[in-house]
Amino acid sequence: MNCTCSKNNIEFYHNFQLKNFNTLKMSSCADLVYFPKDEREFCSIFDLHDNVCVLGWGSNTLLSSLGIKTPLIITKKMSDISFRCNTVEVEAGASVQKLSQEACNNGLSGFEFLIGIPASLGGAVAMNAGAHQQCISDYIVCARVFDVEKKQIIVLNKDELEFSYRNSLIKKNDGRFIVLSAKFLLNKSDKANIKAKMDENTEFRKRVQPSLILPNLGSVFKNPILPNGEKLSAGMLVDKCGLKGFHINNAGVWEKHGNFVINYDNCTSVDYTNVLFKMYDSVKEKFNIELECEIVRLGQFSESEDKIWKILKKD
Asked: Tens digit of pLDDT for each residue in 142-186?
């Protein structure tokens, strides 16, 4: 791994190992990685390359075991969080767990649900992250977004971001728009009450979701909604197929919840993808319900993985 800062003084590396930059702890080598510190550096990278990928905290992203050939931006150093009265402006690379804690420190309520989510702000906005009947779109005012096609920064308000369940304009136009920062409006509240709610959410998460001691990407399938509006639990459907604890090599369905896939010991992206397909195929066969994967991918994948992914993804 080599480091230099000669390209517009932006920190970058060749042959960079990404195992510690994704929550699945997937071994994946990137040919070229940039770590911009601000919007100016971020945007200038697109003057150097025609095609660029972006990674935040890697909590919802399956990296290819074959590696990443496309230049990659990691946004972790774009992590400023600033408060003014009831509003907070947050850069894309900021940890939403840190954001939740700092909102509490400032006596602002609304982000208690973020305390257990290991994600960056940019990724959380793109997928409209949520928990405990709350989501990012409940509090967002607007986002500063880089339009890759026009190579310019635009500001999109809440309506223009087209939020829906685990979806947004950003996610629906994969690669076209990239979140740089966002502004939110929160509610003044008592710090003790905010902290109590955060503690409650943390304890709930410990009971029903694996900690990152067991490397995982979070829940893998969206909870399906039936034509009559009934919302089902993807984990419950997988459980009823008897798949808790199911393994393919070193990737497996978590023994305590059917909607999490664990990397038990240096699994490959092929192992992980095949486990996802087993879950999908079993639920389709037993219940005639086609689960939709909410994980995204990054890198060069095998032909067999690509075939499965066309089935797992609907958007």
From this structure: 999 999 999 999 999 999 999 998 889 999 998 899 999 999 999
Shared-domain flag, residues 50 and 128? no
- Measured distance CA(200)–CA(68) in Å, rounded: 39
Structure confidence at residue 2 (pLDDT): 52
Of 59, 64, 120, 166, the catalytic one is 166
In a domain, 220, yes or no: no
Indicate whether 92 and 196 sit together in one domain: yes
Q: How sure is the predictor about 211, in pLDDT bands with cuts at 50, 70 and 90?
A: confident
CA-to-CA distance for 58 and 195, rounded, in angstroms? 27
Q: Mark which of 160, 188, 206 sits at the end of a domain.
A: 206
- Which of 219, 282, 297, 305 is catalytic? The answer is 219
Active site (annotated) includes residue 294: yes
Please identify, among 74, 91, 123, the residue that sits at the C-terminal boundary of a domain: 74
Q: Is 219 a catalytic residue?
A: yes
Together in a domain, 86 and 48: no
- Establish if 116 belongs to a structural domain: yes
Structural domains of the chain, count: 3
Range of the domain at 11: 2-74
pLDDT in tens, 17-50: 999 999 999 999 999 999 999 999 999 999 999 8
Q: How many CB atoms lie within 10 A of CB 238?
A: 28
Q: Of these residues, 41, 102, 112, 294, which one is catalytic? A: 294
Q: How many residues does the chain have?
A: 315
Q: Look at residue 124 and give its three-state secondary structure.
A: helix
Average pLDDT over residues 60-85: 97
CATH of the domain at 175: 3.30.465.10
Torsion region of 58: left, alpha or beta (phi above 0 gives left; psi -120 to 50 gives alpha): left
pLDDT computed for residue 31 by the predictor = 98
Tell me whether residue 166 is one of the annotated catalytic residues.
yes
